[in-house]
């Protein structure tokens, strides 16, 4: 199920500048990766390995650095959020950020949203580290932070409709699915179940997604508890809590 857009319109004149800026930064970094590696579909050569190892989250290096009180080792937790392993990797991540990020940016405000986005990414990185602290395999990508966006969206806009492209064999259809159904389905079937059955060969950091999503849920819950009046007298489209 591929999300195409959400039916949760932005207020008139509002521009999600931070979301657009995050997308732009990721794309610019990706272009740099292409120029450095000479690849685009998937980064697999030696130059790509150097780049990903240098900018990615390597659990063993971060754990050992923190034990030695070398706090500079946490820098890759931030740089890894802007590095991707190929065009499908960045394409999927930026699609989700574009669809869901604007609503969350409006709710939290630009500065807080940016801070939370980075926090969600860092928490996701530590969740990945906890899955195997001795691992030498780097993790990269914005999906941990974007999972935080999705978690917050589920709490704040559960009734917003997600226009989704459904493909089942030769059957295709556009359907509208409420976020309260779409996002838990994505979370369970794309992350929890693969993590439980041990799909380690997929190259996906499932626990990073799970950690990001859970901290996003918590952030959305805190916002909802501290802005009760918005949700008591909500607007039809969700800018006040639907």
Features:
3 strands, mainly alpha, 10 helices, globular, 242 residues, Rhomboid-like fold, three-stranded antiparallel beta sheet
Q: Name the structural class.
A: mainly alpha
- Total individual domains: 1
Mean pLDDT: 92
Distance between the termini: 23 Å
Q: Report the count of strand segments.
A: 3
CATH class label? Mainly Alpha
Q: Assign a percent range to the helix content.
A: 55-70%
User: How does the overall form come out from the CA principal axes?
Assistant: globular
What portion of the residues fall into strands of 2 or more residues?
A: 5-15%
Give a quick account of the main beta sheet: strands, pairing sense, barrel closure.
3 strands, antiparallel
What's the quick description here?
This protein is mainly alpha-helical and 242 residues long. The protein contains ten helices and three strands. It is globular, with a radius of gyration of 18 Å.
Task: Explain what this protein looks like in three dimensions.
With 242 residues, the chain is mainly α. Helices cover 61% and strands 9% of the residues. A three-stranded antiparallel beta sheet has the order 1-2-3. Helix 3 crosses helix 6 and helix 8 packs antiparallel against helix 9. Residues 234-242 have low confidence and may be disordered.
């Amino acid at each position: 199920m591929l999300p195409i857009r959400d039916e949760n319109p932005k207020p008139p004149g509002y521009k999600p500048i931070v979301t657009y800026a995050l997308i732009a930064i990721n794309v610019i970094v990706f272009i740099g990766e292409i120029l450095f590696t000479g690849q685009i579909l998937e980064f697999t050569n030696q130059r790509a390995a150097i780049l990903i190892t240098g900018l990615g989250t390597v659990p063993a290096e971060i754990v050992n650095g923190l034990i030695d009180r070398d706090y500079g080792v946490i820098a890759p937790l931030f740089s890894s959020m802007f590095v991707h392993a190929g065009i499908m990797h960045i394409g999927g991540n930026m699609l989700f950020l574009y669809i869901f990020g604007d609503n969350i940016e409006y709710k939290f405000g630009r500065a807080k949203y940016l801070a939370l986005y980075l926090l969600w990414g860092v928490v996701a990185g530590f969740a990945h580290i906890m899955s195997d602290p001795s691992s030498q395999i780097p993790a990269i990508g914005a999906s941990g932070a974007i999972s935080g966006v999705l978690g917050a969206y589920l709490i704040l806009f559960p009734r917003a409709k997600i226009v989704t492209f459904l493909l089942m064999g030769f059957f295709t259809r556009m359907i509208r699915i409420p976020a309260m159904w779409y996002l838990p389905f994505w979370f369970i079937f794309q992350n929890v179940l693969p993590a439980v059955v041990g799909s380690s060969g997929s190259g996906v950091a499932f626990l990073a997604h799970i950690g990001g999503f859970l901290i996003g849920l918590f952030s959305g819950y805190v916002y909802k508890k501290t802005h009760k009046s918005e949700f008591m007298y909500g607007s039809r489209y969700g800018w006040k809590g639907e």
